[in-house]
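Entry 14: structure prediction run for Eukaryotic translation initiation factor 5A. Input pasted below.
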Amino acid sequence: MSDEEHHFESKADAGASKTYPQQAGTIRKSGYIVIKNRPCKVYLSLSLFFFHVVEVSTSKTGKHGHAKCHFVGIDIFNGKKLEDIVPSSHNCDVPHVNRVDYQLIDISEDGFVSLLTENGNTKDDLRLPTDDSLLTQIKDGFGEGKDLVVSVMSAMGEEQICALKDIGPKN
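Run finished. Output tokens:
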């Protein structure tokens, strides 16, 4: 054996995977899928059967194509519509999507929110949402002194405020 020391530098994330595989044919409307590296909610899922004749030099007719799944998804963070067609027997990436509620404590002038976590700490790394309607509801409710709870959706290393609950006036 050699007396040399070997040092390995890991560039991989030690945490859990951001996605998991699922057979395309089992993904349904209102589920989640990764399309073009973006986490999407499935808006439409169709199984298509492509039957086509492949011309070959020996003049044999071609074989039937395989069932395909046509996915139309809406990016859960920016609302953009994305599409993909995948053989139904192939695996697709499905994002781990989590939703957590936090009580809104403060809104800073630069657009960051301060949220109260379940264990009593604060979470101060989120910006106000870009959705105009939700943004207005949050700012107006906070300005009126209401107790607000925001829902934060996270997937694939991103997170964003996606909903609001008014739990009454502050005491």
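Notes: Helices lie at 132-143. Will compare against the previous run tomorrow.
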